[in-house]
Specification:
This protein is α+β, with helices and mostly antiparallel strands. It folds into 2 domains: about 220 residues, Dipeptide-binding Protein, domain 1, CATH 3.90.76.10; about 220 residues, Dipeptide-binding Protein, domain 3, CATH 3.10.105. Helix content is about 25%, strand content about 15%. The strands form 5 sheets. Strands 11, 12, 13, 16 and 17 form a 5-stranded antiparallel sheet that branches. Helix 9 runs antiparallel to helix 11 and helix 15 runs antiparallel to helix 16. The termini are far apart. About 55% of the residues are buried.
Length: about 575
């Protein structure tokens, strides 16, 4: 009989037993939960102040050439509600605007909303600022939001981002295909009849006027309004319902830019300032051209040769030369992203307690410090939590011993569960230069555990995501989590709720589900402590092994000025300018 697996709990970190080595530089879930878990009533009060009236822009766009920026290859159709591609999200955030937008520090500030008020964190009264229009001239109304949110929840065409609406009353039956009564309780008469293509209606959404609507949640949810800046909750024009295919290729939005040539996955995608946008984040340039790259080295050559103005995907090996050449134009800034090793916990050999022990052993065999310093030239930090430090509630020592290099204990744990006969592979994306990270991890595993480990490359991030989602990829994969909105819950609920929208590990634990539900119904600081407690439980089984907290590593050419990055790692595209001649 083999010995029982040794469990290494998450908790305070002890002194690491390191093997010094230097490497050379490298080239329907939440809503159902909330409906059944009794949740305490949180404190009451207004959620947002009423902002000043919508103002006209104080600057006119520059007359110079458009700003040329990088992207990854884009999907064939425009649908920011159904993609995890960060560049689609960025572009959508420039073309569409919701009730809120996020400032550089991640704070939600009113955009289309004049006010969002609640006295109990359950019923929210929304009033839209006057004067908002889509780029085709159609007014932005309460119906524009309610119809868009109903569409997001519609089970006919499930969307990856629909769990953003999980707390809203009626989400469970609509998502399950049994919507019940209409979301629009106001008798608006025959004029309220909806064109073909409208979706089943959420009971918790009620239009009360042309610029007012009510959001009713299943249970109180303090902080709910923070998610309302996500672009998946932006309003939609009529064409999105009457001719969805046209909208997917020629999107119409209410943001500071429009797409004059429509959406295309081929070649450069141009964005130009929208004359109908008159709010607080106007375009100060003549436009943004997104140029897709699959080869970071080629993109860097284009920056040096003056064909690309802004590049935010850099190989760590290029940083020393870039710092010497571009000086202050090189940015190295912590952002809301974290990288981990995600395991399919429902597949052998990663199932059960033995699988958890194997994941813990691998975690303790990885030299994170060498990854951060030698592989990534200090553009990464050692991860100690499932969320990065820029997120409120991050813990500097949550993972403890399980995330500390200790080859001897790692080997002992792995031997206790029969090892890893046959070894394993790690899938990764080549277009964001993940190969060196996987090579280094596998070198650690081979050296410390004597287990065969090889990388399995995918040409693009989208190809890897598709393979994981479809089940074609059956092994662990390198996964970088981008902050959806600036709360700790955004790193936990989608990934670790039993049927969370980005739960690609198969992790399912009713105790964790209940703990997350209770946390979401409480105010800070108790909310933060409950989320940390849920994180500790998740880390005891390690469905995702935390590795690194990510910086944005970027460079801009001398042809542009005012290039700044927000906490999400995205340039403030509207603010980038070309120096005025003369």
């Amino acid at each position: 009989m083999r010995p029982a697996p040794r469990v290494v709990p998450a908790g305070p970190r002890r002194h690491a037993r390191r093997t010094p080595r230097r490497r050379g530089p490298a080239h329907v879930g939440l809503a159902a939960l909330l409906a059944v878990v009794p949740l305490p009533l949180a404190g009451c009060g207004p959620t947002t102040p009423t902002p000043p009236p919508t103002a006209s822009p104080t600057h006119s766009p520059d007359a110079g050439d458009p700003i040329v920026v990088n992207s990854l290859p884009l999907p064939a159709r425009f649908d920011p509600t159904d993609t995890d591609d960060p560049y689609t999200g960025r572009i959508a955030g420039l073309v569409q605007r919701g009730l809120f937008r996020y400032d550089a520090k991640g704070k939600a500030v009113p955009e289309v909303a004049a006010s969002v008020e609640s006295t109990d964190h359950r019923v929210y009264e929304v009033t839209l600022a006057p004067g908002w229009r889509f780029s085709d001239g159609e007014p932005v109304t309460a119906d524009s939001f309610v119809d868009a949110w109903n569409r997001l929840a519609d089970p006919t065409h499930p969307k990856r981002m629909r769990d953003l609406l999980a707390p809203v009353a009626g989400f469970v039956p609509v998502a399950a295909g049994t919507p019940g009564r209409s979301s629009d309780a106001t008798d608006r008469g025959p004029a309220r009849d909806r064109p073909t293509g409208r979706s089943p209606r959420l009971a918790g959404l009620t239009v009360t006027g042309a610029r007012t609507f009510t959001i009713t949640l299943t249970h109180p949810h303090p902080g709910f309004e923070q998610r309302l800046g996500h672009v998946a909750l932006a309003p939609l024009p009529d064409v999105a319902f009457t001719d969805p295919d046209r909208f997917a290729t020629r999107p119409v939005g209410n943001g500071p830019y429009l797409l004059p040539r429509g959406w295309s996955a081929r070649g450069v995608l141009p964005l130009r300032p929208s004359a109908t946008y008159t709010a607080g984040d106007p375009a100060l340039n003549s436009g943004i051209d997104f140029r897709p790259y699959t080869d970071p080295a080629r993109a860097l050559r284009d920056v040096r040769d003056g064909r690309l103005d802004v590049l935010d995907v850099l190989s760590p090996s290029s940083l020393p030369t870039l710092r010497a050449t571009f000086a202050q134009r090189v940015v190295d800034q912590p952002v809301g992203r974290s990288t981990g090793l995600a395991f399919p916990v429902h597949r052998a050999p990663w199932t059960g307690k033995d699988g958890s022990a194997r994941r813990t052993a691998l975690s303790m065999a990885i030299d994170r410090e060498a990854l951060a310093v030698d592989v990534h030239a200090r553009t990464r930090d050692v991860a100690t939590d499932l969320a990065p430090p820029v997120v409120e509630g991050h813990s500097p020592d949550l993972c403890g011993d399980a995330c500390t290099l200790d080859p001897e204990t790692a080997a002992e744990i792995l031997d206790g569960v029969g090892g890893l006969p046959g070894g394993f592979t790690i899938a990764y994306a080549e277009d964001i230069d993940e190969g060196p990270t996987v090579t280094a991890i596998c070198a650690d595993v081979v050296e410390h555990l004597r287990v065969r480990c090889t990388g399995r490359p995918y040409p693009t991030s989208e190809a890897l995501r598709t393979a994981v989602a479809s089940g074609e990829e059956t092994g662990p994969h390198l996964a970088t989590r981008q902050m959806a909105y600036p709360l700790l819950e955004s790193f936990l609920v989608p990934r670790f709720l039993g049927d969370g929208r980005t739960n690609d590990t198969g992790y399912a634990d009713p105790i964790t589900d209940a703990a997350l539900g209770r946390a979401l119904a409480t105010e800070a600081p108790e909310r933060t402590e409950r989320l940390r407690s849920a994180s500790r439980r998740i880390l005891t089984s390690m469905p995702v092994v935390p590795l690194l907290d990510v910086h944005v590593a970027a460079v801009s050419s001398p042809a542009v000025t005012d290039v700044r990055y927000d906490v999400f790692g995205s340039p403030a595209y509207t603010q980038i300018r070309r120096p005025r001649e003369g």
